[in-house]
Design a protein that fits this description.
By secondary structure, this protein is an alpha/beta fold. It has 3 domains: about 100 residues, 2-Layer Sandwich (Nucleotidyltransferase, domain 5); about 120 residues; about 130 residues, no CATH class. It has 16 helices and 7 strands. The chain has a 5-stranded mixed sheet. Strand 6 and strand 7 form a beta hairpin. Helix 10 crosses helix 11. The longest helix is centred in the middle third of the chain and has 35 residues. The protein is globular. This is Transposase, IS116/IS110/IS902 family. InterPro entries: Transp_IS110-like_N, Transpos_IS110, Transposase_20.
């Protein structure tokens, strides 16, 4: 007799329902500490449960998955796809509903990568977080300088450029003479805006408190940059040890270098069996146009929701590929612009094309061949 289990996962509790084929059920509630999870596992083993489905609630499902994955076939379920019909609702009924739809084969599991890919993903997403924090620290530094009426950010290309950072370091060190500070700015900036204008933008009043806060933000930024470098090195070591072939394959695509290749592997892994078609992985990444049509009228063609981390990596790679001279991606990008598409839509289309190629390359273990399409057309 087939037995399945549904788990409704919360921050501090887990509601369980074991369902038999004859309709009988066993319900219970467990805590989330490791001894409680061990009790849950032992109970499932004693009842000979073959399949377990659990909701992907925040990160609370991960410890449960790690303990149960050794003994059971697990399915991680998006709560959006198993919403109950309107009516009475409770946590116990949620667990029973999950078990019911699992028993009837009405749900499919979400993609859960293996342990090594999860390690890669942790480093990659930590770097994504660090990048945002670095930008925030730079913005706070500029806010302090603006308060001091130092307006150099109005003239440099960006607040992360070397000239700007040299000025910040000099001010932290106690330098306040505009004639000295202006010598740290790149000549191109001086020629573009005029030396006197740039010098005037460096003429302000900086208090000791301002210097102290600037130093704190500067040190935070430097520490975060160091952590990013450490994470990249660890990702590189993991990829070279376990995914060397895939790392090299991905780098044959225009716009994808070593770092981007490692980030892509961290998000999608190297086994494409979880994504049966290229269209499936495109939808999972949120790069597929929405099919919103009624009475023959198209209401929307916006891209769907999906993996925002992967989408960001692919859009950055697409931008690089679209600027690669004489590449098919550059021609595709320019062709879409000529048809009246916006730069953003054209870039999304190139990113989608890249992901389709990546799926095929990893599925077949073949490098990118720019001449492949031409050979087919010639034949």
């Amino acid at each position: 007799m087939r037995r399945v289990c549904g788990l409704d996962v919360h921050k501090d509790s887990i509601y369980m329902c074991i369902l038999y084929e004859n309709g009988s059920k066993i319900e219970s509630v467990f805590g989330v500490l490791t001894p409680e999870l061990d009790k849950l596992r032992d109970l499932l083993v004693s009842h000979h449960v073959c399949e377990v489905a659990l909701e992907s609630t925040s990160i609370y499902w991960i410890p449960i998955w790690n303990i149960l994955s050794v003994d059971f076939s697990l399915k991680l379920v998006n709560p959006y796809f198993i919403k109950q019909l309107p009516g009475r609702k409770s946590d116990v009924k949620d667990a029973e509903w999950i078990a019911t739809v699992l028993q009837k084969g009405l749900i499919r599991g979400s993609y859960v990568p293996d342990r090594m890919i999860q390690c890669l993903r942790q480093y990659e997403r930590r770097n994504h977080e660090l990048s945002k924090n670095i930008v925030h620290a730079e913005q706070r530094m500029d806010m302090i300088l603006q308060r001091c009426n130092i307006r150099i950010s109005n003239y440099v290309s960006c607040i992360s450029c070397k000239g700007y950072q040299k000025v910040v370091n000099a001010i932290i060190s106690g330098e306040s003479n505009p004639k000295v500070l202006v010598t740290l700015i790149h000549k191109r900036t001086l020629n573009k805006h005029g030396r006197q204008v740039v010098e005037d933008s460096l003429n302000g009043f900086v208090s000791d408190t301002d210097r102290d806060i600037l130093r704190q933000y500067r040190d935070e930024r430097m520490q975060m940059e160091q952590h990013k470098s450490e994470n990249k090195a660890k990702m590189q070591a993991i990829c070279e040890a376990h995914y060397c072939e895939e790392l090299e394959l991905l780098q044959t695509l225009p716009g994808i270098k070593e770092e981007s290749a490692a980030n892509i592997i961290a998000e999608i892994g190297v086994d494409m069996k979880m994504f049966l078609t290229a269209s499936a992985i495109v939808g999972w990444a949120g790069l597929k146009p929405r099919n919103d049509q009624s009475a023959g009228r198209i209401k929307s063609r916006k891209i769907t929701h999906g993996n925002k981390y992967l989408r960001k990596i692919l859009v950055e790679a697409a931008w690089s590929a679209a600027r690669t001279k004489d590449s098919r991606f550059m021609k595709m990008y320019q062709r879409l612009l000529a048809r009246g598409k916006s730069k953003q839509k054209a870039l999304i289309a190139v990113a989608r094309k890249l992901l389709v190629l990546i799926w095929n390359m990893l599925s077949k273990k073949e490098a990118f061949n720019p001449e492949y399409k031409r050979r087919i057309q010639a034949a």
